[in-house]
Amino acid sequence: MDAVGAWDIETGSSRILVGLLDTGVDYNHEELQGRVLKGPDFVNNDSDPRDDQGHGTHIAGIIAARGNNGRGVAGVCWSCRILAIKVADASGAATNAWIAQGILYAANQGAQVINLSLGGSDPSKTLELAVRYANSRGALLVAAIGNEATSQPVYPAAYPGVIAVGATEVDGNRASFSNFGGYLSLMAPGISIYSTYPNNNYQALSGTSMSAALVSGTAALVLSKNPTLSGHQVRRLLIASADDLGTRGKDNLTGYGQVNARKALSGGVASPYPGISSF
Predict the structure, then answer these.
(1) 185 among known catalytic residues
(2) pLDDT band at 46; cut points 50, 70, 90
(3) How far apart are CA 185 and CA 84, in angstroms?
């Protein structure tokens, strides 16, 4: 996805806020401290989105861990800010109601990108309406497609207006566990992604959750360089600049291809594929 090449163009802006709906964030981590805004904890109904599981802290680091500081890891958008919203408990479980509340909160707080490295097989009208509302506010929603190697829809990734992200192996091929289907939008690396973990630790994890975070970070980079773009315009740009995989054009196994951060920032991309003029 060439994040290193992208950093020659843009490393991110503190004006860009990424809503992170997850298990919370260790906002005192050495690589995240000072760049995490504390949103609500919808699980425990309080105002402290502290991570009691680890997943959310890992995702936060992929998106926005400090870069160029000689320690740990660098997030894709290393100068961006994270809005931490806890919608999943210590076991990683989340309800559609918690996720919907989190989306509404992030949109109302002005998050330009909302990362959803979570999902389930049960559709929810409440969740779908929250997605529509966030879209209407100009937010770009990015969601993991799931790790069950199935074409069964996963929500919120399967809703219109959401970039559904699958995982690739180190060699660029689709990861065997990555879900697939007609609603798949983009791919990103998802194997042994090294990132922040609670208590100033670091860990390598695999999954479409990590892939979604890489796409969210790339979207935040694009907005850092071009802050007037709408979420819809960023989506088109990410798709148009993706590296095609598998069958030419969009396909059910790899979507429009693998996100390419450098190409998305450089502007030297092909015309968007037909059929993506709307969410």
Answers:
(1) no
(2) very high
(3) 25
Is the four-CA dihedral 153, 62, 176, 261 of positive or negative sign? positive
244-274 per-position pLDDT tens digit: 998 899 999 999 999 999 999 997 443 333 3
Beta-carbon contacts of residue 91 (< 8 Å; ≥ 6 apart)? 53
> If you count DSSP H runs as helices and E runs as strands, how many of each does the chain have, helices first?
7, 9
Catalytic, out of 22, 26, 41, 51: 22
Let me know if 232 is a catalytic residue.
no
Tell me if 254 sits within 8 A of 175, measured CB to CB.
no
pLDDT of residue 71: 86
Residues 55, 58, 79, 185: which is the catalytic one? 55
Q: Is 277 among the domain residues?
A: no
Residue position matching structure tokens 């966030």: 134
Whether 124 sits among the annotated catalytic residues: the reply is no
Task: Answer yes or no: is 273 within a domain.
Answer: no
- End-to-end, the C-alpha distance of the chain in Å comes to 23
Domain count, the chain: 1
Q: Which of 209, 211, 216, 224 is catalytic?
A: 209
Buried b (16+ CB within 10 A) or exposed e, 170-185: eeeebbebbbbbebbb
75 contacts 44 by C-beta, under 8 angstroms: no
Share of the chain above pLDDT 70, in %: 96
In-domain check, residue 108: yes
What's the confidence (pLDDT) of residue 279? 23
Q: How many other CB atoms are found less than 10 A from the CB of residue 16?
A: 22
Its domain, for residue 218, covers: 3-266
**pLDDT for position 276:** 30
For residue 33 the two structure tokens come to 């401290």
Tens digit of each residue's pLDDT (9 = 90 or more) over 68-87: 888 899 999 999 999 999 99
CATH of the domain at 261: 3.40.50.200
